[in-house]
Please model this.
Amino acid sequence: MAKSDADRIERRRKYVPVRYLGIFDRVVNGGNSRADAVKLQCLECNGYSYIDARQCSEVVCPLYHFNPYRISQCEGDEGGVDDVESTNEG
Model:
């Protein structure tokens, strides 16, 4: 990774709530799944507000139908997630 890339990642990381640093680190370091990348994007788009991500109504977003937090995705046993586990070890 180029130094400028590492600098950009570190600058962005400063704005990530502690609760979501684990998923952020996994995604930007490449040891992630597509599901983690979608989770992080949905959280970031909604200001890292889990509640706002659940209420997302941006139907023009390419990830709208993949948002794991949307209420319609999370209700019942449809495989939605209730929250992102923090795996921050720092």
